Every structure is written in structure tokens, then in C-alpha cells.
Amino acid sequence: MSKELAYSIGSTFPPLTPGIVRLYSMRFCPYSHRVRLVLAEKNIPHEIVNINPKKRPEWYSDIHPAGLIPCLQFDDGRIVYESVITTEYLDAVYAEKKLISSDPYERARQQMLVDSFQRIVALLFKALKFKDPEAFNEICKVLDHYEKVLSDTFFGGKDVGFTDLMIWPWFERIRSLKSLLNNELDKERFPKLTTWIKNMTLLDSVKKTSVRQDHLIVFTKQSTTSAEPDYDIGLEKPKEEEPAPAEEPQSNPE
Ligand SMILES: N[C@@H](CCC(=O)N[C@@H](CS)C(=O)NCC(=O)O)C(=O)O
């Protein structure tokens, strides 16, 4: 049985491992993907506990008051949630390989890029759920600004940083879901972003955390059409209990 299976109602709290940060996650959640990227990029030893957000385990409300994912839990009781706050916290505590600039203006510039990206999050949802072609055009209009301000290998310079990791999960989804979107980014309109995407895909953290395209396609189809998508797509699941064999019909004595 896979260790990645999502915990749901009725499950028992899995004990924490001393010295290991735990991330409560969901395999297809782009916000969790942000934190998985940061943990991988900074090489922070961690474990992942997947949660079924539609059938959350009872014990999860003691960890995150609103029950959202992602959320970090440390073995000394510290809890940190909200993907951007979590990233800022991890960057401050694990100082090696800094992702956030110490220069106030540069930091503000990157935070603005991450903040405005929420517009794309909403538009992508609209494009996928309502098959609204105008939503993809709107995404491209927002991305024009990102194309304009990208002036180096990554958004913060020669090394991968805060903005890159915070926005990547949605670029991975735009790429992987082009068949569902019936659209993809125009290389002529976005030459710098096209090179940036190539550079991102070469990073180990991006390779390690990428979501399988076929699973993502199935999950996205399900989550835009059903209230209960399968959070364990592609995983080996526990065998359903065999139904008790039906009693043999008694034959009438001749
Ligand atoms: N602002 C939050 C958003 C997190 C979020 O919306 N997570 C989704 C899963 S992708 C969730 O927990 N949904 C469950 C629910 O809304 O009840 C963050 O950045 O961490």
C-alpha cells in the first residue's frame, strides 16, 4: 500500500518523527506544491502526510483551524500554514540557499509579483472549470507583465528564488493541462517566459516535485466535474474487503 495515500475521516494521527518537519499536503494542490518546491530547493529533511480535503481526518482540525492544506508541523509543536507565510518562515529558519532577498525593494518587487499572480490562479480555475476561452486570453494579458519584467535567468537574478518557486506550480499546470485548456503559451509572445520555463524544468527541485501529467489530467477532469475527486489516483490502494460469498441455494430434495 502506498505511503502517499491521503488520510481521511476515521484515520488515526500518524506520530511525528523526531527532528523531521512534516508537511500536510495534497498531491494535486498547487499551494502544497509551492512548499514542496521550497523544501526540496533548500534540502530540508521532511516527511509528507497527504490529506483528503473533502473528508478531512477529525484530528486535522487541531492542527489547522480552517482545515486547509498545506500546513507545516514541527516536532516541538510549531505549526505554520499559508503557502507564502510558510515559505517566508522556512527561508528565515533555514538560512542556507536564501530564496528571499534582504534588499527591501527587491523583496517588495518579488512579493508584488507573487501577490498579483493570484489573478492567474483564479483565471486558470475559470478556464478549466467553465471551459471559458476568454479566461485563457486574460491569463496571457496578465502574463505580459511577467514577460516584461523578467530580465535574467530567474525572476530574482541568476539563481532560483521566491517568485520562481511561488508561481511555478501554475506554469506546470498550464503546460500539463494544455489538452484540457485547448491552449498553450505562445512562444513568440512570451520568448523570455519560454526560456524561463525551460530553465525551471532543469532544476532538481522541480523534477523531484513535479506532478505526473496523466494523473493531473484525470484529477483536474474529476475535480471540475465532481464533488469527490479521487485524491489517490495512480496509487496502490488497500484491497476492498471481499464480499461474503453468497450462500449456495439449497436444492430441494427430490
Ligand atoms: N491561501 C492558502 C490556500 C490553500 C488552499 O486553498 N488549499 C486547498 C487545497 S489546494 C484546500 O485546502 N482546500 C480545502 C478547503 O477549501 O476546504 C495557501 O496559500 O496556503
From TrEMBL:
Cellular component aspect of the GO annotation: cytoplasm
Region of interest: Disordered: 223-254
Any one GO molecular-function label of the UniProt entry: methylarsonate reductase activity
Biological-process GO terms, alphabetical: glutathione metabolic process
Keyword Transcription: no
Residues covered by the GST N-terminal domain: 19-98
Recorded catalytic activity of this chain's protein: methylarsonate + 2 glutathione + H(+) = methylarsonous acid + glutathione disulfide + H2O; L-dehydroascorbate + 2 glutathione = glutathione disulfide + L-ascorbate; RX + glutathione = an S-substituted glutathione + a halide anion + H(+)
SUPFAM superfamilies per record: GST C-terminal domain-like, Thioredoxin-like
EC number: 1.20.4.2, 1.8.5.1, 2.5.1.18
InterPro entries, sorted: Glutathione-S-Trfase_C-like, Glutathione-S-Trfase_C_sf, Glutathione_S-Trfase, Glutathione_S-Trfase_N, GST_omega, GST_Omega/HSP26, Thioredoxin-like_sf
Domain GST C-terminal: 103-233
UniProt keyword terms in alphabetical order: Oxidoreductase, Transferase
Keyword Isomerase: no
Function: Exhibits glutathione-dependent thiol transferase activity. Has high dehydroascorbate reductase activity and may contribute to the recycling of ascorbic acid. Participates in the biotransformation of inorganic arsenic and reduces monomethylarsonic acid (MMA).
Family, as annotated: Belongs to the GST superfamily. Omega family.
Protein name: Glutathione S-transferase omega
Species for this entry: Brachionus plicatilis
